[in-house]
Structures are given as C-alpha cells and as structure tokens.
Amino acid sequence: MASVPVYCLCRLPYDVTRFMIECDVCQDWFHGSCVGVEEDKAADIDQYHCPNCQVTHGPSVSKCRKYCRICITGVSRDSGRPVKTGSAQFVRELRSRTFPSADEVLLKPTGAQLTVEFLEERSFSVPVLVLRKDGLGMNLPPSSFSVSDVEHYIGADKEIDVIDVIRQADLKMKLGEFVEYYNSPNRDRVLNVISLEFSDTRLSNLVETPKIVRKLSWVENLWPEESIFERPNVQKYCLMGVKDSYTDFHIDFGGTSVWYHVLRGEKIFYLIRPTAANLSLFERWSSSSNQNELFFGDQVDMCYRCSLKQGNTLFIPTGWIHAVLTPVDCLAFGGNFLHSLNIDMQLRAYEIEKRLSTADLFRFPNFETVCWYVGKHLLDTFRGLRENRRHPATYLVHGAKALNNAFRSWTRKESLAEHEHEIPETIKTQQLVKDLAKEIRLVEVRVEDYTTDEEMLAVQGVKGGAGGILDLLKASKQVAGLDSALRYSMPPASPSTRDAIQGMLSMANPPSSSSSSSSSSSPLSISGGGEMLGLMKEKGGRAGWISGVKKGEKKTTFQRPGKRPVKRPARHLSDEESLDEQETLGTCFKDSDYVYPSLESDEEDHINKSKMKRKRNWDDTPWSPKARVTPTLPKQERPVREGARVASVETGLAAAAAKLAQQVSFCPERKRPKKGLATAKQRLGKILKIHRNGKLLL
C-alpha cells in the first residue's frame, strides 16, 4: 500500500483547509501557522526560505516596493514611486479621469423588449442596459436584503475567495468573517467578493436569472442530466464589495456573456470592444512582465464608462474587455452563460486563456464538454431544418463552422491527449465532425429551398422597410380594388382566355392620340436614389424585371371606365403597345412616388405581345449548352435614308402587287366578305356584341 506524502515541520498530510507556502530552496511545503507566515502577508514575500534553509541561505526576501509587480498606471507625482493598482491614490486618479460615455454604444430596451429575436437582429454585439427589472422575468430579494442575509442563507462557515484590492492578491476567508469585516465601521483593508457561486445553496431559491439568459444558456438547455461530467455552476453569483473596490481589466472565462444587477449601491464599468486589435493588445498586456504597471484602458483607441446604479441590469456580450470600480458599498447579483449568438468569439476567448496558461480555477468548468453537446445539437437542428426545407440563421451557420474547426483541432493526434478527458462518451467525435461539415456544405449550396418569397429575398440581402421590395410584395395583393380573398379563391385563367380578354379590352379602349417623347430607362437595371426602380419576379423558374415609373417625369393621363385616372410617362407607342400597357397599368400599385405593376399580372405576356412575331415555346425549354444565344433586347429601328430608294426595286414590287391582284380577282371560289366582317377583330366584335366605339350592344 502506497504511503501518504507528508509535509511541513509537523510532517502531516496535505490539508486543503490549511494555508501552506512553498520554500524556494528545498521546495517543500509548510503550513503558515507552523512557520509563522500569515496568508495575507505571503504575497509580499519574493523568495521564501523555510527555517531549515534560512541557516544556509539567509532569511526570506521581501518584494521591492519600488518595482513591485503589483504597481501600475504610472509614477506618483509626490514621491516618484509607481502608483499601485487599487490603492487610494489609484482610485482617486481613476475617479478624476474622463472617459467616453457608454451611451454611445449601449442598447437600452425595456425588460419586455429584450427577447431572443431582439438580440438575434443585433447579434448581441454591444452591451445592453435595462434600467428597470420589470419584464425581465427575473426574481430577486428586496432592496433591503443585506450581506448578513447572505450569510444566513449560505452559512457562516462557507469558505469563500476574497480579493485584497490594494495588494491585488487572492485569499480565503469564512463567509462569517467577511460579513463581520463588511459591517465593521473601521476597515483596515479593502476586500472584494466577486466569485461566490450559490446555485447549490438556499439563497438560490430567492434568485431567478433573467428569462433571456435561461433561453440562451447552453448549460440550462443542452447539458444532459445523464452526463457523467459535473454540471458547470456559473449561473448565479453574489458580489459583495466595499467602497473603492476595483477589479482590473479581464475577459470573463470561456468568453461567456455576463449579467449584473445592482441590488444596493453602484458599480462603474470600463468597457472595451473585443476587436481583433484590442484582443491582441489585451493578450500582450496580460502576458507582459510589467502588466500591472500599465492601465490597459490607455492602450486602446476607446474605453467607455458605464455607471450601473441601484435597480439597473447590465448584459455584457462575449469577449468585451472590462474593469469594475465600486464607488460605494455594493451588493449585486450576476451570472455567466454561453450561447449560440457568438460561438466564434467564445472559442477565441477560450484559446486566449490557454495561451496565457490561465489556472483551471479561473476557467469555465468543462468548457469543451459543453461544446461537444452543442455540436450534436446543431447537427440535429440542421438536419431537421433541411427536412422541412428551412434555412438556419446565418449566425448559427458561422458558429457551427467555427465549432467544427475547433473539434478538428481538439481531435488531432498530436493534441488529442490534452483534450480527450473532456469528450463525452456518448459522442462519436469523428462521425460528428464529418456529419456536421456535410450539413454546413448543404446549407451553403442550397439556394432554392425556401418556403416563402420573403425568405428568398432576405437571404439575397433584400430587407423590408419604407417602400422596400417586401412592402411591394404585400401591397401587390391589394391592387385594382379587388378583394384578396375572392381573387385568390378564383382559379387562374388559361393563356388563351387571357389573350381573348386582352383583345376585348383593347377594342373597348382605343389608345390616346396624344403622346410626347420622354427619356426611357433599361428595364434590366436597378437604380436607387430616385432612378428607375426594377423589381424581380419569380414565376415558373424564370425571372423577369418589372420597372416602376420615376417621380417627376412627364406623365399622360387616360381614363378607364370605373377606374381612377392613372398617370404614366408618355412615349411614342404603337397601337398594340399602347393598349397592352394600358391594361397592365390598370392593375397596379400606385403611391405618390411610383406606379408599380402588380406582381400578379402576367408580365411575360405583356412583353411577348409587344413582339408579335417572337415564338413563345422557348419559355419552359430546358437550358442546353448548344443552344443559340439571342439578344435579350429588341432590335432598334434604323432611320430611313432619303434618296436611297432603288427604282428597279420599286418597279419589281409594283409588278408583283399587280400580278397578285390579278390572281385574286380571277379566283372563282373566293367570295367577297360581308361588310363589317372582313377582319378577325370585326368578327370577334360581332360575336361578343361590342360596338366599334367600345359600347356593348344590348
């Protein structure tokens, strides 16, 4: 049986409840109580020599106050010595400085407005300040709740981590001892508690995290109950700080987002954006030997100041670098959470922690384990959306790609040993990486699998708004004064029926005789800022452009029976073009700026009618690489040159016409048509009983 290692002069086994210090010579460990070293004084020792080693190496060496590694920000004006972070002088100088207001970047919704959709639209990329807790779905003790009440619900014997602000050193205390210090009128030190997690205590019953946190949190929603790994408890923290407490710049572990609610007192946050440049500077500052001699806020382009007063709630997004000052005694609650809105930034923060060799005590518990659970969830989500012909959100696709890249990195042969202890037994890593990569590829190549026109337009980058395309889609359903329900209940007319109706209307509505020339714009271009507006319409797998009318152009007015006058730009039209465009504009959406043809009218029919000799059987012909490509624009008429007629050609044409007339006159079977029925249009008018003046004959 292996013997238990013993330490110190007392030669006893390791006891986690007792403070110990290591000798820098013999590298043995000693209880502070056995060698006369107090825990809060140990940070001032540069090299410790145990009683045995002091005989040969002399006494322990204390840190030099002048070049102490906990001194920061600059040199004192009075003594020329560095100002120590957290000292009274440091706090005074910090209070006197002016910083840009965080109002420049903050979002300030009400509690009811702060929803998942609200954050999805804005990517949760800037801090969110909610002035009142109403609507947040958060339960908290009353404002009369005190640190003594915290002791009552958690227990006086609970050992907690405490920060000695002046020395910027960590130490352990009993909660009862800290509460006694907090309530004392004479405080010889500035102590701060920021890491008291109470999810497994009775105090947890009095605190409910904000609803938005519960909806987004990976741990809350995706951590399986049957997991053999310990569930990360980082959702509920109690923060107790006395006046002038200060926490230096940091990124919350694992790139987690964090929420704070001030129950009593006030906290001041100094916020820095997590840009690539700022993150690089932060990593360099954190690993430098003179880190504590520099105020990080001076190294970046912008450091914002945000005051969080009693009753306010602040949500800090992933990766934001921040420091915290407590100007008055303060009691606050908060918590950390991972989510899917900023997966890439969470992974970047995690990699920074690893490069900085951050101690496990200050890292997110089982970070990689929860990422594997999330990867499996994303795979199932993508599969379900694909089966339902739905498209995942863009931020989710980007996050899945970043997560899958991390999985590949963690499972490489050279690094697997470092990461395999956090891989759940229920996860088949190689299969998950392969399947997730496949689903991501399918999402990226899938273009037409959308359920609505609005989704297609949204994916193409077209957004709604005043006068936007989505608004036109909605407005076009109410054109021509028809009831939408009645119109949609009617079956679509056949092409021949539509042609007959257009022919009837063309006879009943003769073209206007007045016309004037105006400039025209190509229907294949989309212009903004008052230019001609083009709108693409999807129909039968084809795309066509519907052009609007620019405001300010010269318009002509014509009147249709039972309709309001419609204005449109005047240009020289043939009889057939005029009649067809008149019919098209009769069923269109009109506002003060533009005239928009209805999306339900057959625009292809209008285009084809203006080109009577063009074949229509090409519309649904599959694409062929050997097919002949024809110009998309109609051939323009060339001006006739005067004096260029050839006499022989005119003579030949006259002879041919005379011969044709002679053949027709001697044809014995041909009968002379009746008066008024010589043309197809006249015969159709006779059948439909339409007078040539456009009136019905009853």
UniProtKB/TrEMBL annotation:
Basic residues bias locations: 561-571
Bias (Low complexity) ranges: 510-526
Single GO biological process annotation from the record: chromatin organization
Domain PHD-type: 5-56
SUPFAM superfamilies per UniProt: Clavaminate synthase-like, FYVE/PHD zinc finger
Keywords: Chromatin regulator, Dioxygenase, Iron, Metal-binding, Nucleus, Oxidoreductase, Transcription, Transcription regulation, Zinc, Zinc-finger
Limits of the JmjC domain: 198-354
Region annotation Disordered: where it falls in the sequence: 504-533, 547-582, 611-641
Coiled-coil boundaries: none
One Gene Ontology cellular component annotation held by this UniProt entry: nucleus
UniProt GO molecular function: dioxygenase activity; zinc ion binding
Entry-linked PROSITE patterns: JMJC, ZF_PHD_1, ZF_PHD_2
Places the protein is found: Nucleus
Family: Belongs to the JHDM1 histone demethylase family. JHDM1D subfamily.
PANTHER family per record: PHD/F-BOX CONTAINING PROTEIN (PTHR23123)
The protein's name: PHD finger protein 8
Biological source species: Cyprinus carpio
